[in-house]
Amino acid sequence: MRVLAVETSTLAGGVALLDGDRLVGEYLLDVRATHSERLMPAIDRLLADAGWAPGDLQGLAVAVGPGSFTGLRIGLSAIKGLALALAIPIAAVPTLDAMAAALPFAELPVCPVIDARKGEVYASLYRWDDDGMRREWDYLAVPPETLAARLIEPVVLVGDAAHLIATPYARLAPAHRRVSSPSAVGVLGLTRLAAGEAVSAADLVPIYLRPSEAELKRRVAAVN
Question: N or C, where is the chain less crowded by C-beta within 10 Å?
Answer without folding.
Answer: C
